[in-house]
Amino acid sequence: MKTRLTKKRQAILRVLEESSEALSAAEVHALVPEVDLATVYRNLEHFTNEKTIKKLQLGTQEARFEFQHEPHHHAVCTECERVLHFTAPDEKIKKLLRLEDFKVDELEVTVRGICNHQK
Ligand SMILES: [Zn+2]
Ligand SMILES: [Zn+2]
Question: Which ligand is nearest to the Cα of residue 21, counting in written order?
Answer without folding.
Answer: 2
